[in-house]
Amino acid sequence: MVNRVILIGNLGKDPEVRRLENGAVVAKFPIATNESYKDKNGTWQTQTEWHDIVVWRTLAERAEATLKKGMGIYVEGKLTHRTWQDQDGNNRRTTEVVASYFRIISGGAGKRDGSDSGHFFPSADDEMPASTASTSSPMPEEAPNEADDDLPF
Hints:
The chain is mostly beta strands and 153 residues long. The chain contains one helix and six strands. The protein has a five-stranded mixed barrel with strand order 1-3-4-6-5. Strand 5 and strand 6 form a beta hairpin.
């Protein structure tokens, strides 16, 4: 079974960061994704979806230091659902993406140096999730004169 979410969107506001009593750091921020389509009259429409993102520990500290409203980001994580009670005692349900990785892909309004390098992801200095990080070299070398008929499929 797989629970994996990949989103590319723009930050709706700066991350809200909290430090818990046990020392853990958590940051929350919304990102917007857009989808364009033609309606029945042939007019282009854009539908915006908002996604609540949660990051923990060092990733939350990195979000606090680098993310600003308007930036374009790439996010990987898992979809989660929480049930809670509001002040009136009503049961509420929240859907969030708990991110394990994010990458800034455009500066937006929060770019500090005013430049946009045009580089996307990944770069050599990015943190990769443990599940996808490789300890070998990024580009495996081909064995010379290896026959294709040895493939198991």
